[in-house]
Amino acid sequence: MISLLIPALEALSTGSLLVVDELDTSLHPDLAKAFVSLFNRESSNPHGAQLIFSTHDVTLLGSGSIQQDEIWMTDKDRDGVSRFTPLTEFKLRSRDDIEKAYRKGRLGGVPSADDFYLELSRGPSPTNQ
Fold first, then answer.
1. For position 122, what pLDDT does the model report?
2. Do the Cβ atoms of 55 and 87 come closer than 8 Å?
3. Rounded to whole angstroms, what are the CA distances from 24 to 36, 78, 97?
4. What is the pLDDT of residues 40-64, one digit of tens each?
5. Taking Cα atoms as reference points, which of 86, 40, 82 lies closest to residue 63?
6. Ranges of residues in the chain whose predicted pLDDT is under 70
7. How far apart are CA 44 and CA 12, in angstroms?
8. Which of 22, 92, 89, 86 is nearest to 60 (CA)?
9. Helix, strand or coil for residue 1?
10. pTM, full prediction
11. What is the phi/psi pair of residue 18, to 5°?
């Protein structure tokens, strides 16, 4: 948290942009929510700093910390090409539906375990000899 707070405080004090890859890597979900809320409250963000982050923490989706028009889903196709889709393109009834819809795969961004297959052999194949 401390390593994130220093650049966050700088961004908040100058009104600049902070980009964080994998926000949830070493933060408890409650701390991640608190961190995001620093950028959403006028009292802590009087200069309009912006936060862009990636995460796998699906609890942030339904936390109320992030508006639906601020969420983008990322999917990779079989060739490894990423596609970004704004959450507003999906038909959702309420904030509570976001996390549930994501977990059910309705929003994309969920890897398919069926596509993951690893074959282990007991020795070199005939082509590797």
1. 60
2. no
3. 11, 26, 21
4. 999 999 999 999 999 888 888 777 7
5. 40
6. 94-96, 111-129
7. 7
8. 22
9. coil
10. 0.76
11. -120, 125
